[in-house]
Amino acid sequence: GYETLEGLDGQTGLQLAQTEDPDLILLDVMLPKMNGFDICKTLRGENRTTPIIMLTARGEEEDRVQGLKLGADDYIVKPFSIRELLARIEAVLRRSPERPRQLREIRIPGATLDSANRLITFKDGRETSLTAREFEFLTYMATHPNRVITRDELLRRVWDVDPRLTDTRSVEMTVMRLRDKLGAASASPLETLRSQGYRWNSSFVS
Question: How far is CA 43 from CA 29, 40, 83, 127, 175, in A?
């Protein structure tokens, strides 16, 4: 029941992912012209949040860990059944609700963001740089506007960790640093909802 696109080599697959912006990518590791690891790294480097399931005949733990560290959402080792593949697809899509199309820019009140260099310039000429994680967090929030995003979702989608297996205040510390860097006025779209999570209020940036 899914509408699919097919790339028979890595370069074609990467181009389709960039131009067609699919809802999910099934990504083989061993591909001609460009391997799956490099494709995954390139897409995540462009701040694309498209869910990725990697398919491979290589079952070594090191390879699985590499794929997940590069930003893959799941990893299936061949051979596998179609039923298992469909179940994995459905599970990943459930964890990635209402995925919007890729934003070309993030709008911040009173400032402009240079996405390529992760540099924010304010109207008074001040500049401040963002760490890679701060930029990823800001991108994820801005590309999911007006939706409450839980801490667990952020840990999975931005930090690539299982919240059940970690005890960290990384999300809270990132929010605190961003508020300090952006200032009260510019931080206004980023709302903290007690006991619920965070929300990017697009009415502040319309």
Answer: 14, 5, 27, 27, 25
Residues 6+ apart with CB under 8 A from 24: 50, 51, 52, 53, 89, 92, 93, 96
Peptide bond into 79 cis (omega under 30): yes
CA-based nearest residue to 26, from 195, 109, 16: 16
Query: Which residues are CB-contacts of 46 (< 8 A; sequence separation ≥ 6)?
Result: 18
- Rounded-to-integer distance, Cα 166 and Cα 198, Å: 20
Q: Which helix (H) or strand (E) holds 3?
A: none
Distance between CA atoms of 195 and 11, rounded to whole angstroms? Answer: 44
pLDDT digits (tens, 9 = 90+) for 8-65: 999 999 998 888 878 899 999 889 999 989 999 999 888 778 889 988 876 667 777 7
